Each structure stands twice: as C-alpha cells, then as structure tokens.
C-alpha cells in the first residue's frame, strides 16, 4: 500500500492508474478508522480496480469551540487497518498541503444545510464541500463512498455532484453498528462507561419513532420522552424529513434523525425508510 503525502504524489499515482485503464474508488475519511470505514473500502474494492483512501482531519468543517484539536488521531493504526482492508493507497496530506493559501472562491451549501446538524453548525457543510471538491478533482475518482450514518452530509454531497455535473458516482454505504445497535463512530471513544451503556437507546428511540410514524402518530414527543428517561445526554434535535431533499414534505423516502450531546461526545444517528413500503 502506498502512502501519499503530497498533491504531486497523489496526482502521479492517479495518472499511472488512469494510464493503465483502471478505475478509482475514493473513500474519504478523517481517520481513526472503524468498521464503517472499512466496509466502504470493501464496497469500493468490489466496484473499482483501485481504492484510494484520504485521511485528513479537515479544519474547514470545524467551528469555534468544536473538537478539531482533540479529534482522535492514530495514523499508524489507520495505516494497518486500511492496508488490511485492501486499500491500494492512502492520501495523508498536511493542512498546509491541502490548503496552501486562503481560498478566494467559496462553495456554499443550500437549504439542505439549514436543518438537522447544519442548523446549529453554520458553515460546517461549506467546509465539507470544500474538502470533497478538492478530493474529487485530485483523485479523479470514478466512484466515491460515504456512509449513511452522516446522512445529511451524504445528501448534500449528492447534490454537489448532480448540480455541478461531476464525472463520478456517489455510492452509499449502510450504517455499521455495534452488536447493541450503537452506530460506529470515531467519536464514540469520548463516551464515559455510563454514557456508553446509555448510547444504544438512540437506535431504540429511532425504531420506536419509525413504528409510531407508520401507525399514523407524530413520533417526536414520545422519542423525546424516551431519550430523556434513558440517557443523560441533552437532545440536540429529533427531526422527520423527506430524504434526500431534507424538506418537511415527505414524498418517497423519509429520514428520522437525531443528535444527542453527551459530556464530551455529540452522537448522531438516523434511519431512512420508505413509508409506502412498510
């Protein structure tokens, strides 16, 4: 497995891969890999000749007083996991390499960023779009892979690719969970032992809410009561929206999503389903 640290090294690898007539699958990450990331590598390997993973904690998507400085990092561990999963190359740039100058052009997320996580993290998805746009161009990927746990991010990136005719496909990966239902996340390491015991109730609340909605009931208040009784975290939001438009008018698929702030970790989770098929 190659370790590429500069843009020039990455572009050289891309040129050689394309010259050989091989396709490229991109798995963008911020590192501290878990089974969710590795499942995306597996999916990318099945659909492409070569897989490149980016490992970059992107400062552009962190707001003031967020956890950029303490975001978990372990490159040696990540390298071993990525190689074990069959990744062909990892791109590990420094901040200076990725952003050598102050950007003069900005890409701004639209209305999809005004709900869920975006409502309380202004500019977050602008930072996501900034980094993925650069990665898409640098890797010339045929397909890029994102997990559904970050469903709002996924929807916004799909809009970016569609609206600006990027010559690539966005592929969705299912949320990977622990045996007790907790969605895999790099930030789970922030949970205390007591909070870790409480965290599976997020998935249980989502399943309960889905069932209530399918029975014709509004699930928000019962879910709020359930999480208040069963966790010590502060509920940031619980929302039921159309997916992927993230509007209130549910046409086909629906997303039921929530965020809960524990002492040192803000956990998000969601389920996407078609009410007409249930």
Number of domains: 2
Based on DSSP secondary structure assignment, what is the total number of beta strands? 9
**What is Rg?**
19 Å
CATH class term of the largest domain: Alpha Beta
CATH topology of the largest domain: Rossmann fold
Strand line-up across the major sheet? 1-4-3-2-5-6
CATH superfamily placement of the largest domain: HUPs
What is the structural class? alpha/beta
What low-confidence regions span 5 or more consecutive residues with pLDDT below 50? none
Q: What general outline do the C-alpha atoms trace?
A: globular
Work out the strand percent: 15-25%
CATH architecture grouping of the largest domain: 3-Layer(aba) Sandwich
Mean pLDDT: 96
Helical proportion, percent range: 25-40%
Query: Roughly how many Å apart are the termini?
Result: 44 Å
Largest sheet: 6 strands, parallel
Keywords: ATP-binding, Cytoplasm, Ligase, Nucleotide-binding, Pantothenate biosynthesis
Active site: 37 (proton donor)
Subcellular location: Cytoplasm
Protein name: Pantothenate synthetase
């Amino acid at each position: 497995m190659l370790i590429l640290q500069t843009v020039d090294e990455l572009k050289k690898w891309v040129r050689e891969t394309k010259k050989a007539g091989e396709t490229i699958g991109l798995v963008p990450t911020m590192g501290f890999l878990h089974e969710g990331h590795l499942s995306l590598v597996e999916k990318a390997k099945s659909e492409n000749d070569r897989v490149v993973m980016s490992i970059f904690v992107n400062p552009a998507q962190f707001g003031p007083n967020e956890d950029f400085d303490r975001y978990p990092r372990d490159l040696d561990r990540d390298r071993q996991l990525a190689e074990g999963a069959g990744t062909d190359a990892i791109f590990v740039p420094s901040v200076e390499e990725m952003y050598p100058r102050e950007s003069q052009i900005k890409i701004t997320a639209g209305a999809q960023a005004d709900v869920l996580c975006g409502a309380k993290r202004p500019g977050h998805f602008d930072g996501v779009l900034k980094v993925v746009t650069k990665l898409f161009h640098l890797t010339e990927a045929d397909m890029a892979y994102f997990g559904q746990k970050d469903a709002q991010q996924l929807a916004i990136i799909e809009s970016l690719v569609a609206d600006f005719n990027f010559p690539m496909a966005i592929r969705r990966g299912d949320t990977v969970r622990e045996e007790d239902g907790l969605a895999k996340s790099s930030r789970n390491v922030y949970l205390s032992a007591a909070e870790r015991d409480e965290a599976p109730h997020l998935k249980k609340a989502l399943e309960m809410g889905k069932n209530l909605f399918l029975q014709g009931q509004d699930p928000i208040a019962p879910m709020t009561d359930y999480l208040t009784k069963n966790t010590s975290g502060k509920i940031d939001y619980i929302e039921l929206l159309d997916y992927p438009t993230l509007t209130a008018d549910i046409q086909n698929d629906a997303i039921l999503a929530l965020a809960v702030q524990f002492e040192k970790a803000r956990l998000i989770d969601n389920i996407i389903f078609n009410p007409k098929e249930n």
